Each structure stands twice: as C-alpha cells, then as structure tokens.
Amino acid sequence: MRKRGTPPNRALRARRPPEISPPVRSLPLAFSLSSDRSMASISGTVTATSVRPRLTSRAPVVKGFSGLKSVSFSIQRNGFPSVRLQAAPRQRRFQVSCAQAKPETVQKVCEIVKKQLALSDDTPVSGESKFSTLGADSLDTVEIVMGLEEAFGISVEEESAQSITTVQDAADLIEKLVEAKSS
Amino acid sequence: MSWLLRRNMLPLHSNSLARRPFASPLPLPPASLPSPRETHIWYVVPDELKDASLLYQYMELLSPCERQSVLRMNGERLQKGALLARALVRTTLARYTDGRLSPKSFKFQKNRFGKPEVEWDKYDLWAPPPLQFNISHTSTMIACGVTLDLPIGIDIEEKQRKTSNNILSLAHRYFSPVEVAYLKTLADPECRQSEFIRLWTLKEAYVKALGRGFSGTPFKDFTIRLEASNSKQVTGELKSDAPSIVVEAVDDPGILMNRWQFALFELNNSHYTAVCMERDVKNPADGENNSLKLEVWRTLPFVEDECVTETDAVKNIIR
C-alpha cells in the first residue's frame, strides 16, 4: 500500500501499458477498502451492477487501494529506480528526519486521538494516520493538542501545532518538547 | 421505487435510471446568481441519502484526485461525508452557470494560503460568473455557501456538541480576552457551552473568509462580539435597531473591521451556522439595511431541492 499523500504509483502490468489512474469501473471494490483496514463496504443497499472490475488472473495487477499485490516503482538507496513486487507493502519512506518518537509515545497519542474523535477500539490508528482522514475538524485538533499537553506535561506553541498533520508528527513533537523541558 | 413529486422537487425518472445504472444525471435546475449582499447556502443531510446508487453518481462527478482523497478517509461514514462534500460543491456551483457547465467539469485550485477556489477556464463567448464558495461539514450535515465575487467563510457545528476540555480552559487558550470575559459572565453551563460553540463558528467563519488559514489568522488576535444598536460605525452608516456582529483586532479595539459582515443562525434545528462575507463596497446600500442576506436550500443533489429560507429550518438569525 502506498504512503498517503504521495501521488499514485504508475502501476505496471506485465504486458500492458501503465495505468494512470484507478479505473472508474473499479468502484464496487473501491468502497470496500483494504483488508488490513477491515472496512465494511456499503453493504445491503448495493445491488449487483453490470460493471465488472478489470482484473485478470494472468498478469500481476493493481487492485486499487485494496493493498494486495502491486507492482510499484521505488527509489532504492543507490539512487537507481527499480521495479519491485511488493505484497501489501509498507512503502519505504525516505525522510531526512530527526529520530522518530518511541512506540509508547505514538501509542499514547493514538489513545488520546481515538478518545477525542470517539473512534471505536478496532478502528486502526497508527503513526501514519492523518488527523483529517480520521475526521478531526479544527475544534477536535485543538482539543487533541490540549489533551496531549495535559498528558505529557508540555506546552505546544500555535506554530508547532499547525505543523502537526499525523499522529507521528504529534508524537515526534511531544518527545522534542519533553526532552527540551528536561534538559 | 416510486418517487413522489413534491413541490419544488426535481422529478426523477426512475425507469430510465434503472436501465442505465451509470446514466448521466438529470440536469440540475438552474439558480439565479446571488445579489451583491447575498450568501446562498446549500446544505445536505447525509442521513437522508438512502440510495447507494446515488453515491456512484456522485463519485462520477469527482476528479481522480478527489476520488482518492475520498477513499483515503478512515471508514465508510467519513468516506460518504467526504464524497457528499465534493458532490455538493460541484453541483451547487454548476447550478449558477445556466446549464453551461456540468458539475464534473469544474476544476479547483488553492490560493497561496491553501484556501480552495474555482479555477475557471476561458471561454470565447461566455464569461463564467465569478463565484466564490466555502464549505463546512459535520458528520450530520454539509453546507456550501456561495457568493458572487465576494470572499466568504462558513462554519457549522452541531448544537449538541460537547467539548472534552473545560469551556473556560479552551477559551483561555484560544479566544481573545474580551471573548473570555463574555463567556465568564454566563453562569449557566449549558448557556456557556452553546455560546462557546456559536462563538467558535463565528471565528472559524471569519478565518475561512479571510482565507489565510488557522495559522494566518490566530483566534487570539481578534475579537468577535455584538455591537450595540444605533451606534455609528467607522463608515458613518447608522445601523438598524438590532445589535450586530462585529470583529475587531485585539491590538486595535474599537476600530471595527467593517469590511466583514456576519450572520449567525440555526439550521435544520440541529446546527449553529456562521457565515462571514466581505461587504460589497462596489454596491453600497443607500441608507437601508446593509446587513447580509441569506437564501438557503436543503438539497439532495439530483433528487430534491427545497428552498427553506423563510421556514423553520433557518431561525434565530443574528447579523
């Protein structure tokens, strides 16, 4: 599965030209998301349509956002683009970044976010989760920031708060502030 | 599937739809352009959508990029909301083009601060109306405000919304001193709660109208309050009897930012709604009431439109 926020990879089929964008006709699949997100499709009210998803059993295919086998480009560390087969991959990210936050911090942030947004326990929330895609509006975001301040005993400035878009961003910022506070 | 013809309702030819599952939707009834002091508001209630085939129709209207954004949302409910929001914007704008532009044909861009706006194509024999829009949503309603060539911001919040944090803590952190002082005067916690939410929607609407984002217009830097009636404002105009909503910079109290006018009201008995619109200085009112005019429609695009302006769906209006 590709990382959110990046443009879709040009998918390759073994013998066919690349697909530019997910075919519209794959809509019935599109409403049921990847298995690792365990989303329910719009069930019950959807009647069978005459649309067939464009899948063949012969070539490796892209199944839209279902997270199944996909063929994708990725830039290897030596800088040469290469094609790799990935099964439900977590795309390797290249970040010029500082150290990432500890898993426990990420976990705590997830809990606070889930509580604020009243998400069910089985809703998958991880470091990659964006607040906007979890359904947080601006009031939720400020409440989450205040919840984090209280839980970690820190104070978050407005400018820093604006730069937080994912759970990971929040966790990284928290650890930075906690460290600055104790040093 | 029998669709009853109701007043103001778009007749739906169910037979033709059943035969062609992905038929192009019926044309939207055209709407007259907003006048210079008007905001048009179109809102949709997601729970009213019971027919899943409509979702496919709406999906057809979106750009590939928008479709991907919809599918990125976490869960079916949020996806449906995101889809409806895009469908609402596209169908609403299309109504004002006299049938010349389809909802699907609109393109959008962001201004340099990230505020979404229409990217108009150039046409040889027709100038598209310079529409500006803004949307807001909650899980139970999505609203789109449209003006003719005037910056607009709209924000809606459920009346019943409860905050996790204490109201005064939130206010101390994010509101201006004048606003905090006002909230402190309210002893009843429920009253304080609802006033907080209403003030929040007003501040959000203002920030969205300015289009500079939350960080470009920090909540703490401006005050929104009621100005007493019959006071002369900076422009020298006499206001009508009712108190009006005004905005001023915290650093410059007493200098009202007259460029902006507001409306605060309740929509569908469920939501506080705030609208902020730039005042039209090209067409100043000659002595009469200069306040913001509203026209409101409840819609389920391609199914039903209902004008609710003079009904109970729009009440307790403060301008």
UniProtKB/TrEMBL annotation, chain B:
GO BP terms = lysine biosynthetic process via aminoadipic acid
Q: What is its EC number?
A: 2.7.8.7
Tell me which InterPro entries the record gives: 4-PPantetheinyl_Trfase_dom, 4-PPantetheinyl_Trfase_dom_sf, AASDHPPT_N, P-Pant_transferase_sf
Which of the seven top EC classes does this enzyme belong to?
transferase
Q: Where is the 4'-phosphopantetheinyl transferase domain?
A: 151-237
Q: Does the keyword Hydrolase apply?
A: no
Q: Where is the signal peptide?
A: none
Q: Where is the 4'-phosphopantetheinyl transferase N-terminal domain?
A: 57-142
Q: What is this protein called?
A: holo-[acyl-carrier-protein] synthase
